[in-house]
Recover the amino acids of this structure.
């Protein structure tokens, strides 16, 4: 199994509840297909660098997970089919990036405890 991280941007017209439902849908898609979710972060509503579909902002979300390479096509097909997703990117983490992500998660965990 490889380690991946995916970032997707949801349209800003969604309510908070709709955004959480959409994120949960993609997490369920991952876990139903045998992926192990390592970390999830909701970065919130951010301004886009350039307009996408005449929108100037979007809800950013990050999910780090371990999965088989065949699952990535299913995940990205799900992104393309959902009109709430305006952009997405999935990246396979190589050894050093995975180590950095682990350190970053540990650092964030310590901040949340304080």
């Amino acid at each position: 199994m490889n380690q991946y991280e995916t970032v997707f941007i949801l349209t800003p017209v969604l309510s908070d509840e709709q955004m959480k439902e959409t994120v949960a849908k993609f997490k369920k898609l991952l876990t139903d297909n045998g992926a192990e979710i390592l970390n999830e972060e909701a970065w919130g509503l951010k301004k886009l660098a350039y307009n996408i579909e005449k929108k100037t902002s979007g809800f950013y979300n990050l999910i780090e997970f371990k999965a088989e390479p065949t699952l990535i096509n299913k995940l990205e097909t799900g992104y393309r089919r959902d009109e709430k997703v305006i952009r997405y990117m999935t990246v396979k983490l190589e050894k050093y990036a995975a180590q950095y992500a682990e350190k970053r998660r540990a650092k964030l965990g310590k901040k949340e405890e304080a």
Summary: Helices lie at 16-32, 70-81, 95-113. The mean pLDDT is 92. Residues 98 and 104 are 10 Å apart (CA to CA).
